[in-house]
Please model this.
Amino acid sequence: MKHITVSAAVIFFDNKILCVQRNENKFEYISKKYEFPGGKIEEGESKIEALKREIDEELKMEIEVQEEFLTVTHQYPDLLLTMHSFKCRAKNDQVTLTEHIDYQWLLQTEISHLDWAAADIPIVEKLMKI
Model:
């Protein structure tokens, strides 16, 4: 079983959180699901370095990483995912999608209404409690 370790950003701007929607995928369980942006940690990279690189690549955004939020381990049918999430601040709300098909800036009370990827749900649940 393949094991992937990723960093994900819970990006805040003006009391709203950035939620991004994945593109269509051959794996139904993640196809068009919402997620917190981020990606794989490359060899020799720290979790934060990977996060900043991925956010720049995927969204053309600059973020300020503030603190580690929650680490989630989730078993998908074809892989084991460990996701380190971080609370971050955006300098502005400008997003340029390079891999995702949609994005929304939502209040914390609104994010649970989206169709989230399973690994992201524990992060959503923790956000709903703070």
Summary: The beta strands are 2-13, 16-21, 34-35, 38-40, 63-75, 79-90, 102-106. The first strand starts at residue 2 and ends at 13. The chain is about 15% helix and 40% strand.
